[in-house]
Design brief:
2 strands, VanZ-like, VanZ family protein, mainly alpha, two-stranded parallel ribbon, 195 residues, transmembrane helix
Length: 195
Amino acid sequence: MNKTVYVIKLIISIVIGVVGGYLLYNFALMDKVPTMLGDTIYMLSSILTMILSMVACTFIVYLITGLKVNPIVFKVVVALYFLFLLFVLYGRNSSIREMNFNLIASLQELTTDSESLLQFILNIIVLMPIAYFFKNKGVIFTELIFLAISFGIEIMQYVTARGFFDIIDIVCYMIGMNLAYLFFRLTKVDIVKRK
């Protein structure tokens, strides 16, 4: 591919990713993530959520178009992603320690409460990028890591009283990471420029 075509493809991908990310933020995330984290950090969480939704959509466009990312940019984005995860998963003020093991009741709530359904979808999506790092690992090892991550997040939320242990969240995390793992295994896609 010549340089001009590459630059045009790059610019179009970035524009589509940024616009798509903003639309995702505007219509689905703007009031959800910041509200979950509390009013004290509303502005910071809003800006962070908007930026990360734009970056995530740009990466998705890169995956679709086959463009590659500079390794340094990739490392910065990964660091920002993990900071975002810490922020989203443990940035809430809860002070309530609760455990919910009733999967059936949680699934029934999805049919009646749009807020719960959105939370369900976001929980599926939020850990999907982690699967990228395990795309070349064996299935059993990867499943054990995914289980450990999922249970670890929920246990830490319970212990720190920054949320509560919910079995439906574990199911969502597992669904999301496994879907992404399957995608990366089948497509053998790599978005990082290799020397």
